[in-house]
Design goal:
Elements: H1 3-19, H2 21-27, H3 33-52, H4 60-73, H5 77-96, H6 98-129, H7 144-159, H8 163-166, H9 168-175, H10 180-198, H11 211-230, H12 233-260, H13 267-275, E1 280-284, H14 287-299, E2 304-307, E3 316-321, E4 331-333, E5 336-344, E6 353-359
Parallel strand pairs: 1-2, 1-3
Antiparallel strand pairs: 3-6, 4-5, 5-6
Helix pairs in contact: 1-11, 1-12, 3-4, 3-5, 4-6, 5-6, 5-10, 10-11, 11-12
């Protein structure tokens, strides 16, 4: 990076990270994405500094600490570790050869890999000792259509732009001059998602699995815009016009996400209070709905029973879907028919669509 553009790149990167709807969305969840992404960004800094001066001893304890803390926050930092390892290995392979790169990767990432392996072992030991075993939120088989949709959605919400204008950024990434951050972004945004798809890993249609690509692309975009602006003339004018437009688009999308509340099922309580003022029972299709309903009802002091068992037939039924899944309309359960009374669609890369149905007596 040109010295005169380094300060501008830092300011642009800070703005992009603060406003990016994908980071705002996932960073506001109580699932550890915000500290994980902080740890991943710190790891990028450590690796990038070493790649700039590979003759200096790498800061392996700091890297192991960053990645270990990130793993404790959110296990998907493993995808970030894979992206970092691939990026650094290719950089050093290109400059020093395969054998040297292999030795350096073992020295640089070995402590981090051992740290994460030890943490994962403790987790598995705790799960093995528990009568409930190890549980995950869910596993869905890989599909190419879902994979494409996930990447398109993450791109849209990373930049806050409709898909077609947003595609300008990956195209610019492909055509931009080489730099270390460009190589990281190429590996994270193109090679890494393709590897996951070719391996047909389950849940590969989840946008959050590719958050490491958002971080890398935003870092490169800040560097590239700063370099373009440092050349003066029309290029600086173009950057000065691009940044406010991009910031406005991100803020507009953030506002829509905030208003939508990820399709918050807590809004169901308002509807139920109007339909059944003295309280009622709702049959939830999945366990994941019951806790939200219980919390929302307690907050509003509404007498509600969230029933998981399909029978006996409750007065109301709450169904949820995610992604492109559609609702079936009328539902038959426990020998009764339920008809929709309200439907809400979640916007953004996270959240569930829900539909409230009432028993037809």
């Amino acid at each position: 990076m040109l010295p005169q553009s380094a300060g501008a790149a830092a300011v642009i990167a800070a703005g992009l990270f603060a406003l990016s709807p994908a980071l705002v969305c996932y960073g506001s969840e109580a699932r550890g994405y915000a500290p994980m992404l902080l740890a991943f960004t710190a790891a990028i800094l450590l690796v990038d500094r070493w790649l700039a001066a590979p003759d200096q001893p790498p800061r392996t304890p700091s890297l192991a600490m960053a990645l270990g803390l990130g793993f404790l926050a959110q296990a998907t930092i493993l995808f970030g570790l894979a992206a970092l390892l691939g990026w650094a290995a290719i950089e050093r392979w290109r400059r020093a050869g395969a054998l040297t790169a292999l030795r350096e990767m073992a020295r640089l990432f070995g402590p981090a890999l051992l740290t994460i392996a030890a943490m994962a072992g403790l987790m598995w030991l705790a799960a093995y000792s528990s009568p409930y075993g190890f549980a995950v939120g869910g596993l869905e088989p890989h599909s190419w259509s879902g994979w494409r949709t996930a990447l398109a959605e993450l791109l849209r919400y990373t930049l806050g732009l409709p898909l077609l204008p947003a595609l300008i950024v990956p195209l610019a990434l492909l055509l931009a001059p080489r730099s270390r951050l460009r190589d990281l972004a190429l590996w994270s945004a193109f090679a890494f998602p393709l590897v996951l798809a070719l391996l047909a890993l389950p849940n590969s249609m989840m946008p959050r699995y590719y958050l490491v690509a958002s971080v890398a692309v935003l870092l490169w975009l800040a560097e590239w815009l700063a370099q373009v602006g440092s050349r003066g003339g029309l290029r600086r004018t173009a950057m000065a016009m691009t940044l406010p437009v991009l910031a406005a688009a991100m803020l507009w999308t953030d506002r829509l996400l905030i208003e939508n509340q990820r399709g918050d099922p807590g809004a169901v309580i308002t509807i139920l209070a109007a339909l059944a003022p003295t309280g009622t029972t709702v049959m939830a299709e999945h366990h994941r709905e019951s806790a939200v309903l219980d919390a929302a009802a307690a907050y509003r002091h509404y007498p509600l029973v969230a029933q998981i068992a399909p029978c006996p037939a409750a007065p109301f039924l709450l169904a949820d879907r995610h992604g492109a899944e559609q609702f079936a309309g009328a539902v038959h359960a426990c020998g009764r028919t339920y008809v929709p009374v309200a439907t809400h669609w979640a916007k953004g890369p996270s959240g569930l669509h829900w539909q409230l149905l009432r028993r037809r007596d």
